[in-house]
Amino acid sequence: MAFQVHSSELSRFGYSLEATWGTPIADAGAFKEVFFPKGIRIDPAVTKEDLDLNRSSRIQHLDDIFPDTFSGPVLISADEMIVTKDRVADFLFAVTQNRVSQGAATAYQKVFKMNSSQPDFTADAGMFFTLGWRGPVTAKHIKITSCIVRKLSIELDKSSPGISNLVRFRNVEIIGKKLAQGSTFSGTWTAADGTLRFNPHAFTYTDVTDGTALPFHRCLITLDNGAEPLDRDTDGTPKTFFLNPPKLGAVMVEATHWYNADTTGTVRDFIAGLIANTQVNSKIETGSTGVDGFFSFDWKGVIDGNPQGEEDRKMIVPVKWICGDTGSAEDAITITIADSIEQT
């Protein structure tokens, strides 16, 4: 038996975009490599039924329990993932399921918004991928067919030291149609470029409504498309996934602001904003429009909860935005990123 040894801190995964719904990428296909921290959870959706038999016996019988086949959906949960410029657009497409546009040439500027209708996955619309996990035992690797991202949060935190200071995905939830064990991945796995990471200190935060620059300490942007399985194929796996946005909480932004004059930006009366209950436009971004490395989040929402916070720390103001449509289609949040990759 041959074993593969990886870092004790990371699990090695790879993904590859599928062309046809329900048809996985071959083991010899090209996968983009990503690493999730140890503790990632894979729920293969094996259902166990208690048949309520043999109750006259004091000995447990295996035929009391009926496990069905892998009926799906398969749920993969990861606490975090470092965001790199050569991976982020794929994950944003997989959760929004709506790439509004892509530039014709480098830097291939892409615009994403939450899909307010529904891609027909069975007609190969939307974005879905095969997810592979390289486990420790050869020929026992796991492959999950036709995955999308159901939920993720993008965290920008200026307070953490070292590598934890980088922009990262938090609470990533991936759902897939079907799980199979026994793969041997022989194709080329392309490693993420560790030099193309984003630093929160490079982002600026602006109130678009009046153009005021605001200081921020931490920002967490959550995208949730509410995906759930719909109907079943003959093999018992989900026929497709149905998206549930827009709904309250589908897009949320939580920002912690400095409430002093020692940082760049202006102190804002967020309590007045809470009482007014009016929807305002804010954005956080780095780089320049159309230039490789541009990354922008532009959202519209109302403040939810007391900006003073439970601790009433005076210096730091926690502000939570519930985002929603303001009348134009799908504009609760607009995410723009420019990179050197022509996304299929």
SS-derived structural category: mainly beta
Whole-number mean pLDDT: 84
Please mark out the parts with pLDDT under 50 across 5 or more consecutive residues, or reply none.
1-6
**Rg result:** 22 Å
- Percent helix range: under 10%
**Shape by Cα distribution:** globular
Sketch the topology as an H/E string, one letter per element. EEEEEEHEEEEEEEEEEEEHEEEE
The largest sheet is:
18 strands, mixed
- Continuous helix count: 2
Instruction: State the domain count.
Output: 1
User: How far is the first residue's CA from the last residue's CA?
Assistant: 39 Å
| Strand content bin | 35-45%
The total count of strands amounts to: 22
Descriptive labels:
22 strands, 344 residues, 18-stranded mixed β-sheet, globular, disordered N terminus, single chain, mainly beta
What is the structure about, briefly put?
The chain has 344 residues and is mainly beta.
Can you describe this structure?
The two termini are about 40 Å apart. The chain has one domain (about 10-50, about 60-340). Residues about 1-5 have low confidence and may be disordered. The protein has 2 helices and 22 strands. With about 350 residues, the chain is mainly β. It has an 18-stranded mixed sheet that branches. It has a two-stranded antiparallel sheet with strand order 4-5.
Helices and strands, with pairings:
Layout (H helix, E strand, L loop, with lengths): L9 E8 L13 E7 L3 E3 L2 E5 L14 E6 L3 E9 L5 H9 L2 E4 L4 E7 L15 E5 L7 E17 L10 E16 L5 E2 L13 E4 L4 E3 L3 E7 L3 E5 L5 E5 L8 E8 L11 H7 L3 E7 L8 E9 L12 E8 L9 E7 L5
Parallel strand pairs: 2-12
Antiparallel strand pairs: 1-2, 1-9, 3-6, 4-5, 6-11, 7-8, 8-22, 9-10, 10-11, 10-15, 13-14, 13-19, 15-18, 16-17, 18-21, 19-20, 20-21, 20-22
